[in-house]
Design a protein that fits this description.
Blueprint: H1 5-38, H2 43-60, H3 65-90
Helix pairs in contact: 1-2, 1-3, 2-3
Length: about 100
Amino acid sequence: MRFSFQHVQSFLLTAIFSFTLPLLLIGSLLGSLTVVHWLPGLTAIGYQASNFVVNFLATFGDGHALNGSFVIAAAFGFVGGLFYACTPYHYHDSIGCP
């Protein structure tokens, strides 16, 4: 198997992007629900929806929503790295999964 600096660099970049994308999505979801919470007439819906998201994240984070979001992001980063590592095998490249 041949590993070059470009392969390692691209793998790390893929894993980092796969890690940060769920964090950005969760943050934007909670931010938009906060904005909905401020709108008159939609206060109850925004509050219940944001409470649901926080409780969902707390399920994965041993009772803490921030830990849950990091667990989900780590899982996405791991899977993104695996997808990148196994793609050359599909194309019969010199590196890839056995």
